[in-house]
Specification:
The protein is mainly β. The protein contains three helices and twelve strands, in the order βββββαββββββαβα. Helices cover 11% and strands 44% of the residues. A hairpin with a 2-residue loop joins β7 and β8.
Amino acid sequence: MFTGIVKELGKVRRISGLGGVYKLSVEAKDIAGSLNIGDSVSVNGVCLTLTGKDKTILDFDVMGETFERTNLSKLKTGESVNLECALRAGDPLGGHFVAGHIDCVGRIREIRRAGGNYSIEVVFPGEYKKFVVEKGSISLDGISLTVGSVGDGNAVVHIIPHTLKVTTLGSRRPGDEVNIEFDIIGKYILGLVK
């Protein structure tokens, strides 16, 4: 379980695939010291298990299905990724509950900048619209965000400059893919109502 508050921008060092399991190595200078083999780490919103560690290099095994159903398959060496350690008892809950289980991959349609205000419009398959509510929570690439408005298969989130600076959203462009996890509480409520 995570909160969607990114702790570090890591750098992809290696990606390789063998027999349906991919190896992803990420440099993480800040959080590496607090992690142990077997810990869960959110990488662009995807919950991965730490399978190897060498000083500041973190190694993850990624199942082929996870790799192909997320934007991890589009990563390139040297690219930045959002990193967050798993929530521990007593940690502050700064964002919202994020499981690290990606619902779908969306695409950035538009980025608007007006003065110090930024907003990002993301499109996603229409069947997921039922999980999005105005002023509700959404996770894009593991970042906890508030939905500003909802359309038919799209949502707009407003971003403060600090979030752009400390996450991958600052380097995103229209057409880029983002991992989307819809609010887990909303999904459970919808499931109970049905």
